[in-house]
Amino acid sequence: MDAQQRLLAKFFTQTPAYERKDYYFRVRNKAKANQSVLALVYSPMVRKDRRLYTSCKELYGLYCKTCHEKDVLPLSSWQFKKQMQLLGFVYQRCHRFYGRHKSKVTTAYKNIGIVRHQSRCYEKKHSLATS
Question: For the CA atoms of 13, 16, 49, 47, what is the dihedral angle to 10 degrees?
Fold first, then answer.
């Protein structure tokens, strides 16, 4: 009877499987990918999560911006798309986004998202430190 009570106690104290699910996306083929694309994927401006989608245009714009900041020649949008697919990010056509353009249909990368609040927090900290 004691063993049965311990088993029941263990069962009720464990967290359910749906709460323990890992949504982190693991990047593939890192050795074959372009270094500038890898720098973007592993930067703090981007989050890798299996539940996220990001517009191709927005992600490519962020990539070009980071390349210009580092004085690196960015890849073309076609080459960037091929590199993202090589890393395992799924290119999806006709995925709807409900943001600024509610009626637009666009293409997207699955499993990656842009962190929007990071830049604002950095700007506030930076302005407080310089004043």
Answer: -20
Q: H-type helices in 1-131, by residue range?
A: 2-13, 35-41, 56-69, 77-86, 117-130
pLDDT for residue 6: 73
Given the structure tokens 């490519």, which residue do they identify? 60
- Give the number of other CB atoms < 10 A from CB of residue 86: 16
Give residue 125's pLDDT band: very low, low, confident or very high (50, 70, 90). Answer: very low
Residues 106 and 80: beta-carbon distance below 8 Å: no
The rounded distance, in Å, linking the Cα atoms of 120 and 47 is 16
Regarding predicted confidence, which is higher, 93 or 97?
93
The whole-number pLDDT of residue 126 equals 47
**Integer distance in angstroms from the first to the last C-alpha of the chain?**
69
Longest dimension (CA), the chain: 71
Closest CA to 95 of 112, 75, 78: 112
Q: Helix 77-86 and helix 56-69: axis angle, to 10°?
A: 100
Among the ranges 2-16, 46-60, 74-88, 103-117, which has the highest mean pLDDT value? 74-88
